[in-house]
């Protein structure tokens, strides 16, 4: 293909602390909301304590906490320019409300970022990725409590100050719109919370995000800080005007988060939605001022598209979090996720037309049951095809005039899935020898896609096949 990707394009991969690190109580780490969801986002929450009477797969995950030098070296071998990961808030403030941070937690990320710097891999760091200190849920009621804004701001200022010379790209909350569908994971509220309670908690998070943006600008003037959306784009199932409007409203339900974080205010369509659904939230004049601290760029995940229709007799297809009416023109993965590479080009254009800010694709990938052959090789041609086709469409969007900063595929190394805490749902270019029962040597092994991605990066996209 013709050169589309700029020389500054940040190629890499994306992980999350709670899905790779393990060491879940090591070095004074506190319990997080993720530690209370050992079966994943859609499993039941469990009560846990430091006695560690039960052992779950995420407690060790892939032991990145101890094996990160080996993993970073493998990422460097692929040619990574960028690695997205998160800081575990509970490593820095174990309960969330301490006056002083936990030095051993801070020191771990110093070591991690120093290791990345050895290979000139740019860190892209998420402040809160599907977890928060359980102490803030137990003692304060989660994000429904306005006090959490200050706790998060203090956490953000602490890590900005500590890593200001090492990290120049930051994200606030992972897939912030996900709280509408999984409130405990997103905002620490019980699943039966009312819409008013969930949107109030979301509002507190939006204010906290804006305060983090301001703090980042003050503490690290040469850094860039963005938001992160779950890119759940839907098409109208038919050209019936009612279906077109239904798709418009469903897209607005998640684009609203981008509107607030990029434009600095609540859009009119949300004011109407709140009124018509008897949703009442408190937004102070001071909140409105804070929200004007808008992000430098927009990052998002993209795995699948869906359709919207007013025909309520049609069944939905389940993705990681969102359920959407399936598109009859698209194939599906073995987990039922519809595969739509052109949807990524469409979404990139939608977001750039709407916001005119740089975009960063920080999650995209294919979960599959990778099985080694008789010689121990993993020939994941299906993953290569999936990623190739999506990256071709990223190139097309760049040719359309969209400003795309980079692409970090989800799970460059096999990790524990967020939705169901499985190891068998594998995304990586690197195979990790561990199964769903927690058995295995944790040995790392290069898949066929490892060498493919290496060639894509070294050619700056020229190796992609249309």
Characterization of this structure:
It comes from Pragia fontium DSM 5563 = ATCC 49100. This is 6-phospho-beta-glucosidase. GO terms for molecular function: beta-glucosidase activity. With 466 residues, the chain is α/β, with parallel strands linked by helices. It has a single domain, classed as Glycosidases (TIM Barrel). The protein is 39% helix and 13% strand. A hairpin with a 4-residue loop joins strand 9 and strand 10. Helix 3 packs parallel to helix 5 and helix 13 packs parallel to helix 14.
β-strand amount: 5-15%
What is the name of the CATH topology? Answer: TIM Barrel
Whole-angstrom Rg: 21 Å
Rough outline: globular
Q: Could you give a short description of this structure?
A:
This protein is α/β, with parallel strands linked by helices.
């Amino acid at each position: 293909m013709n050169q589309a990707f700029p020389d500054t394009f940040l190629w890499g991969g994306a992980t999350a602390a709670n899905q790779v690190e393990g060491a879940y109580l090591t070095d004074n780490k506190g319990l997080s909301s993720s530690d209370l969801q050992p079966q994943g986002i859609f499993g039941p929450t469990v009560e846990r304590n430091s006695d560690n009477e039960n052992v779950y797969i995420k407690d060790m995950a892939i032991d990145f906490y101890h094996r990160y030098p080996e993993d970073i070296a493998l990422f460097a071998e692929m040619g990574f320019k960028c690695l997205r990961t998160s800081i575990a808030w509970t490593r820095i403030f174990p309960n969330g409300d301490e006056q002083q941070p936990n030095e051993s937690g801070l020191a771990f990320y110093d070591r991690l970022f120093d290791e990345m710097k050895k290979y000139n891999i740019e860190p892209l760091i998420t402040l809160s990725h599907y977890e928060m200190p359980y102490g803030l849920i137990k003692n304060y009621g989660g994000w429904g409590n306005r006090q959490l804004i200050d706790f998060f701001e203090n956490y953000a200022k602490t890590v900005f100050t500590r890593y200001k010379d090492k990290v120049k790209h930051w994200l606030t909350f992972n897939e912030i719109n996900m709280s509408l569908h999984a409130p405990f994971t997103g905002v620490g509220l019980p699943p039966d919370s009312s819409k008013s309670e969930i949107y109030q908690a979301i509002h507190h998070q939006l204010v906290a995000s804006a305060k983090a943006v301001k703090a980042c600008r003050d503490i690290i003037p040469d850094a860039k800080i963005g938001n992160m959306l779950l890119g759940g784009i839907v098409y109208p199932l038919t050209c019936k005007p009612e279906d077109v409007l239904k798709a418009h409203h469903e897209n607005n339900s998640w684009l609203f988060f981008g509107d607030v974080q990029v434009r600095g205010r609540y859009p009119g369509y949300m004011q109407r939605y709140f009124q018509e659904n008897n949703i009442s939230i408190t937004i102070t004049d001071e909140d409105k001022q804070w929200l004007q601290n808008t992000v430098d760029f927009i990052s998002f995940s993209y795995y699948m598209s869906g359709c919207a229709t007013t025909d309520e007799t049609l069944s939905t297809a389940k993705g990681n979090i969102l359920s959407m009416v399936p598109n009859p023109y698209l194939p599906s993965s073995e987990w039922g996720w519809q595969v739509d590479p052109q949807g990524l080009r469409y979404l990139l254009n939608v977001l750039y037309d709407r916001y005119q800010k740089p975009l960063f694709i920080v999650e995209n990938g294919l979960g599959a049951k990778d099985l080694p052959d008789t010689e121990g090789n993993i020939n994941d041609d299906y993953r290569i095809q999936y990623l190739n086709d999506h990256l071709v469409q990223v190139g097309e969007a760049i040719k359309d005039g969209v400003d795309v900063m980079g692409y970090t595929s989800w799970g460059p190394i096999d990790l524990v899935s967020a939705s169901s805490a499985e190891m068998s749902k594998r995304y990586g270019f690197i195979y990790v020898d561990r199964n769903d029962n927690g058995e295995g040597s944790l040995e790392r092994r290069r898949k066929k896609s490892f060498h493919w991605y290496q060639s894509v990066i070294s050619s700056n996209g020229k190796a992609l096949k249309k």
